[in-house]
Amino acid sequence: MTRTSLTQLEARDGFIPRHIGPSDAEQAAMLSVLGYQSRAALIDAVVPANIRRKDKLDLGQFFDPLPEQAALAKLKSIASQNKVMKSMIGQGYYGTYTPPVILRNIFENPAWYTAYTPYQPEISQGRLEAILNFQQVITDLTGMGIANASMLDEGTAAAEAMTLIQRVGKSASKVFYVADDVLPQTLEVVQTRALPIGVEVRTIAAADIENLQETCFGVLLQYPGVNGDVRDYRNACEKLHAMGAMVVVAADLLALTVLSPPGEWGADVVVGNSQRFGVPLGFGGPHAGYLATRDDYKRSMAGRLAGVTVDAQGNKAFRLALQTREQHIRREKATSNICTAQVLLAVMASMYAIYHGPKGLEQIARRVHRYTGILAASLQSLGYQLVNDTYFDTLTVITDQAEEIHRIAYENGVNLRRIDARHVGLSLDETTGRDEIALLAKIFGDAAGKQANVDFDSLDSDAQDAFPAALSRTSAYLTHPTFHRYHAEHEMLRYLRSLADKDLALDRTMIPLGSCTMKLNSTSEMIPVTWPEFSNIHPFAPEDQTVGYREMIGQLEAMLCAVTGYAGVSLQPNAGSQGEYAGLLIIKKYHESRGEGHRNICLIPSSAHGTNPASASMVGMQVVVTACDENGNVDLADLKKKAEQHSANLACVMVTYPSTHGVFEEGIKELCEIVHAHGGQVYVDGANMNALVGVAGPGLFGGDVSHLNLHKTFCIPHGGGGPGVGPVAVGAHLVPFLPNQASTGYQRAGENTEQGIGAVSAAPYGSASILPISWMYIAMMGAEGLTAATETAILNANYIARRLAPHYPVLYTGHDGLVAHECIIDLRPLQDKTGISNEDVAKRLMDFGFHAPTMSFPVPGTLMIEPTESESKVELDRFIEAMITIHAEIVKVERGEYDRMDNPLKGAPHTAEVVTADDWKHSYSREVAAFPVPSLRKRKYWPPVGRADNVYGDRNLFCGCAPIEDYE
Ligand SMILES: *Cc1c(COP(=O)(O)O)cnc(C)c1O
Predict the structure, then answer these.
(1) Total domains in the fold of the chain
(2) pLDDT of amino acid 875
(3) Which of 532, 802, 896, 961 has the most CB atoms at less than 10 Å from its CB?
(4) Do 624 and 641 fall into the same domain?
(5) Which of 151, 328, 516, 709 should be mutated for ligand 1, with most atoms under 8 A from CB?
(6) Structural domain containing residue 684
(7) What's the Cα-to-Cα distance from 304 to each of 117, 333, 711, 807, rounded to whole Å?
(8) Residues 835 and 698 occupy one common structural domain
(9) Would you state the torsion angle of the CA atoms of residues 36, 38, 39, 41, taken in this order, to the nearest 10 degrees?
(10) What would the pLDDT profile of 300-321 be if each residue is shown by its tens digit?
(11) Residues near ligand 1 with C-beta < 6 Å?
(12) What separation in Å is there between the alpha carbon of 610 and the centre of ligand 1?
């Protein structure tokens, strides 16, 4: 035996074989099924030669993969350049304590963070219940009739509210007023959104709203205002309504526990952010925004909505209601393009409310308010004057020494809000204690050259509620038992566990969702997210405190440029849909900059994801649909014809590559050339980048703009429906138009802010605190690992396609009968013969403990399977076995051995209650129902509910916690 060398022994555990599921031996076995000698040979056959990368992916200093510990150490040293100070900047972002039971059991728990959006309700009851709780928190606190399941942030929620009232309101006006004390970052997002749809945004002094005479379709108010004022808008609302205008109020949830909710004084829509309910600052996100409105407008609301229905046995079941995937149905007529939202953060915020309960929340709010009163008195005793005589937690101090105050504050480790040379702002929060009040008094005292009074007893006895008495909250909230039962940690721990146990996430099974790329979210990637150096940074903290963040972000931007072949990237958009929106705005601005602002036609193939047409219409483009041929490819003849027809006005084409049909179309380069020849730009939807990384780059084969989904290709977990990051990447000619943020002076290094499209998110870097996940992934994979991941994803998909083909036809294939990184299997022939639908197969898979593949997208009646590179052959074979077993059941229906209506497929999923009930009336056995394959005896997931009734749920829409009677 040869002796192992020291160098061999010294080789550190690499991350690549941890991320890539199949071992070398498994890969060889799969390749032999496909008839290829090597993975390279397979890739040569799958990927058209004319789009292949000529050189190796150049990741610069990240070319070589870093072992897990080394990557963590490197990122830690970058993170440690951030300075964690006490941020009292406020302006929509506040200090908060994440209850440790929530931190560990939700935020750091793969059972929650690796789940998918709950489109399959039966395996999503836990997170659906949590979302319903969130909706209940929001409806209660805002005093509105209905609230949705989360928005991307406060800024975009306000923008969605603006378009909502435009849709449902009666006014024909195009004018929207924004009070001058609305958060500046919200105003910016609203302005960005208003411009392309012809809405004129005007600002108005908050104090003058009551006297507004000009016609408008609505106004946006902030409650309390950014300077701290708590204004009584009741008369204003009455007048505005009488004028035919509607009222949107951006409100602070903590303040609403003690202030009269906007729903009680005339708001039509209430929006905001739930960050301060236990979600770390994270340099601006991710946090769950919210949107609540009157019951009448529920069908016009943007975003997702969880609701209650019944299952096949008549038991209560939760599911997504109404517009679930409305972009796929309504496309360019959809109410908004929101797809991925902020579910994980909404779940955290809801659990914070549940853990504290109404009394606990009110105590936090009253404490914050009392401290604010004490501080106000102390500042006044120093001779300072305040701008606002009403407040909840925010004071704006008048001073001619603003710079000096900021300097002293800084020396004491405190960030205050920079307003201008004569005003300093500050906001208190849950984490404020006597020490902080004393420190603030000292800071302002030092600036004034005086000793402040910090005698809490005397100051306290003077402190009164500092908001109008008429705005004192009298109505109860969070009265449902859910908000009273889980205050003991054991109760909370077990509640969280019981919910997680109802759901299928990646910690239990592969989730083969086509187009969604449910790959490994490794623990090393997740760990840095909760490092204080990343999580305790305010988005508007001074630059010298965010050096580490900006270095990490700069490196990630460079990595993504290298991967895509583009020249610049912005990480601001906080979902793929937002990246699309930003990318299309960039194209629009580019045309305008060349005097071709009339170009407004957007060509979109019929196979496109629904967010594409929805985004196009949001930027005011006109969608022209182009056909696909019988092989699933973009019909180039039709595209050419339409490009010619619209040549003078052609703005762009939006194509997904490889296509949503799961094939590498040979004609992609030609497509780009055709569109360019007619003066259009090429938008390549990058959701399928998992088939391209290291192998080809959209910026190299003809694309001008792409969005990426870091929550697909780059390992950010889906969180049960968000968070996500949807960077927009562009060619050199479009770099000047990338998003910026004027209110914070944020712009990409060296860019001219004038040309940028403005802000598309509230925070300059969007959901910054989850960017370390993608950084870690790329750093640990290196060029070689990323390329291997792509190749293995393609291998895994082809292996599944080949093994399933004898049972289920694969709808579209490319060269040599091969698919890209996903495959569509066609259930329609079987359905025609047997009545068994793709939905029946999806539900039956639950009995096997699997999450269904993507249903009916992009082709109705099909299933789209994407295994990703992270699934081992063992797991793929388990899935294949389930699918083949299901096929055999369908054959039994076909042969008449099973009844067409009473069979294991139509009966699926089977709950434990159904299977163990004394009366069993089915023509198939209980054993077949519950244990269709032997391995399930060792490892069985029991769906908690039977098949959810969608029609019932929409007819009897109910979107909150169960009525109190149900708990008795
Ligand atoms: C997922 C997806 C999108 C939308 O991305 P979100 O992050 O969910 O907004 C757009 N296009 C395609 C092809 C997708 O698969």
Answers:
(1) 4
(2) 98
(3) 961
(4) yes
(5) 709
(6) 529-777
(7) 10, 16, 18, 36
(8) no
(9) -70
(10) 998 899 999 999 999 999 999 9
(11) 339-340, 515, 575-577, 609, 611, 656, 660, 685, 687, 709, 724, 726
(12) 8
